[in-house]
Amino acid sequence: MRTPEDGPGDDALLVGTAEGDRKAFQCLMERHSKPMLVLAQRVLGNAHDADEVVQETFLKVWSMASRWEPEGRAKFSTWLYRVVLNACLDRLRRMPMAPLDEVGELADRTPSSMDRALAQQRHHILIQAMAQLPPRQQTALSLHYFGEVSAPRAAEILNLSLSACEALLARGKKTLRKILAGMGINGLGDVL
User: Fold this and answer.
1) What is the pLDDT of residues 37-89, one digit of tens each?
2) Which region among 38-42, 109-113, 164-168 has the lowest average model confidence (pLDDT)?
3) What is the DSSP string of the chain?
4) What's residue 106's pLDDT?
5) Where is each RNA polymerase sigma factor 70 region 4 type domain found (predicted)?
6) What residue ranges define each of the domains in the chain, with the CATH number in brackets?
C-alpha cells in the first residue's frame, strides 16, 4: 500500500501527465511497471512479449491521461491491470497454435557443455565490444539490458529524462551493432 511519502496519488499524477509533466508520468511508470510486468510475464510466459505489452500500455496511459476521470468507477491501478491483461490475452489469441499431436517431444532444455562454451564466448565478445562504447552509452546499456533496470529507473540513476535515456539506449545499441559488425558479427542476436 502506498504511503504519503511515496508522493502524490495516481489521480494527481494522471492530471500532471495530461498536462505533459514527464516526471508525473515517470512516477506512474515506476510505481506500476513492475507489477504489470509480473502479470504480463505470468500470462504470456515470455519476458520479451511482456515488456512490449507493458510499454504499449503505458503509451496508452500517456495518450489517454487527459480523458481520465478521477471520480470514475475504478481506481487507476485496477484499470491498468485490466488493460495489461486484455493486451496479453489479445497477444495470445494472435499467436499461432500447433495441434498437440504435431508438437512432438519436448526438448531437453539443460545446456550442453558446447552451449555453455558458446555462451561464455558470446559474453567475452560482448564485454570486448561494450568496452569500446562511449562511457554514457556503456553505462546506460549495462544498467538497462544487463542489469535489468527499467528505462525509467536507468534514467533516474543517470539523472536523465526518460526520453533522453531512451535515446541514449538506442544510440548505444546502434553503436554496439557497428562495433560488432567490425568484429565480423552481424548483430546483437549473435552475441546476446
Assistant:
1) 988 887 777 788 889 999 999 999 998 888 887 766 667 887 888 788 778 77
2) 109-113
3) ---GGG-S-HHHHHHHHHTT-HHHHHHHHHHHHHHHHHHHHHHHS-HHHHHHHHHHHHHHHHHHGGG--TTSSS-HHHHHHHHHHHHHHHHHHHS----HHHH-SPPP-SPPHHHHHHHHHHHHHHHHHHHTS-HHHHHHHIIIIIS---HHHHHHHTT--HHHHHHHHHHHHHHHHHHHHHTT---GGGT-
4) 55
5) 125-176
6) 4-94 (1.10.1740.10), 113-190 (1.10.10.10)
